């Protein structure tokens, strides 16, 4: 190629390639979203269990194998999905929970973004079987974000979501995961924490084809906490102030732990991490247990959705409170009042 011809070719290339910004394909964007929403198997379990509760399920079965890497299956007795909606379930930003941005600040559901199933289905062999009362049962299958296939299926009212070979198409992601036993521990921990503050639900966990535990429906919070904490020296409390309501199970001062991870927090049933609420619990025990030791506590805080923002973290693990100082004082005062009322026989 002579010099003139080469210059003409280079000029033509620049004219035809004058953009460096490209719209990512749905396949790529879903896998990137999966990195935010689905970091580990426990995130899949969390999203599917919360979806089941949003569907008015009262009985949930979770089955896992190899720490959730080989299998995660969540079965519920919820209201099921309309047949015409089943393909939409794995479309990104498709949701039944909200209609406009204002709904985000009045949420009564766990989910709302419409990202979870799209993200999950892009990184696994995915199956969803669902039946709505009075409608046909259908099954949707999609392999690692591929074209979904929908066909008739046999099933009872409710939904079954099956996730196999999680991150099988992303070996780089798999190598950052912990051992299957460590991933299993995280799943068990999440379910126990979720069931502590959603004690009206029934949940059965099956691990590697064996029943791991079963929480029956409509236990009291105190009975549920005794099973999960394996501790008798705990007491129940409730309190209310304006738009705030607390229900909690807390340990007596004799119970002293070396780690603070036995302080379980939830807001409107959503398990969260929040340093402010954790400190409110710890400070209430300040003169009752030595520094560096921590109580057991399961805190369920109910608050008007308009007083908080849950849209601050991809996995919805954190919330932002409008009146955090007032909430701190309410939780602290509620726990301290209960502790001060205790006698040695309060928990016998």
Please give the structural blueprint.
Layout: H1 3-16, H2 26-37, H3 41-54, E1 59-65, E2 71-76, H4 116-121, E3 125-131, E4 138-143, E5 149-152, E6 158-164, H5 171-174, H6 180-197, E7 202-207, E8 210-215, H7 221-229, E9 234-241, E10 244-251, E11 263-267, E12 270-272, H8 275-284, E13 297-303, E14 308-309, E15 320-321, H9 324-341
Parallel strand pairs: 1-7, 11-13
Antiparallel strand pairs: 1-2, 2-6, 3-4, 3-6, 4-5, 7-8, 9-10, 10-13, 11-12, 14-15
Helix pairs in contact: 3-6, 6-7, 8-9
Nutshell version of this structure?
With 348 residues, the chain is of the alpha+beta class. It contains 9 helices and 15 strands.
Structure, described:
The structure is a single chain. With 348 residues, the protein is of the alpha+beta class. It has 2 domains: 28-215, 2-Layer Sandwich (Heat Shock Protein 90); 225-341, Ribosomal Protein S5, domain 2 (2-Layer Sandwich). It is 30% helix and 24% strand. The protein is built from 9 helices and 15 strands. The strands form 3 sheets. The chain has an 8-stranded mixed sheet, covered by helices on one side. The protein has a 5-stranded mixed sheet with strand order 9-10-13-11-12, with helices on both faces. A two-stranded antiparallel sheet has the order 14-15. Strand 11 and strand 12 form a beta hairpin. The longest helix is centred in the middle third of the chain and has 18 residues, at 180-197. The protein starts with a helix and ends in a 7-residue tail after the last helix.
């Amino acid at each position: 190629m002579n010099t003139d011809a080469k210059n003409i070719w280079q000029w033509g290339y620049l004219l035809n390639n004058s953009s460096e910004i490209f719209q990512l394909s749905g396949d790529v964007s879903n896998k990137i979203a999966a990195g935010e929403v689905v970091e580990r198997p426990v995130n899949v379990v969390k999203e599917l269990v919360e979806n089941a509760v949003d569907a008015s399920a009262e009985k949930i079965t979770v089955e896992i194998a190899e720490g959730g890497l080989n299998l995660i299956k969540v079965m519920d007795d919820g209201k099921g999905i309309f047949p015409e909606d089943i393909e939409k379930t794995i479309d990104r930003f498709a949701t039944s929970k909200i209609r406009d941005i204002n709904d985000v600040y009045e949420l009564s559901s766990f989910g709302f973004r419409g990202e979870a199933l799209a993200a999950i289905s892009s990184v696994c062999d995915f199956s969803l079987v669902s039946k709505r009362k009075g409608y046909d049962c259908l099954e949707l299958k999609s392999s690692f974000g591929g074209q979904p296939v929908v066909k008739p299926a046999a099933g009872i009212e409710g939904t079954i979501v099956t996730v196999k070979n999680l991150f099988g198409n992303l070996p780089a992601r798999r190598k950052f995961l912990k051992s299957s036993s460590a991933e299993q521990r995280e799943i068990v921990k999440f379910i126990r924490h979720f069931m502590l503050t959603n004690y009206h639900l029934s949940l059965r966990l099956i691990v590697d084809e064996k029943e791991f535990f079963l929480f029956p429906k409509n236990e009291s919070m105190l009975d549920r906490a005794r099973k999960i904490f394996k501790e008798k020296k705990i007491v129940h409390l409730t309190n209310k102030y304006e738009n705030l309501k607390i229900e909690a199970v807390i340990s007596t001062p004799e119970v002293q732990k070396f780690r603070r991870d036995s302080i379980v927090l939830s807001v409107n049933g959503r398990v969260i991490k929040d340093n402010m609420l954790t400190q409110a619990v710890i400070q209430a025990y300040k003169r009752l247990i030595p520094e560096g030791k921590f109580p057991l506590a399961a805190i369920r805080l109910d608050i008007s959705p308009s007083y908080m923002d849950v849209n601050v973290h991809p996995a919805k693990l954190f919330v932002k409170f409008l009146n955090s100082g007032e909430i701190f004082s309410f939780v602290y005062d509620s726990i301290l009042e209960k502790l001060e009322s205790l006698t040695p026989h309060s928990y016998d």
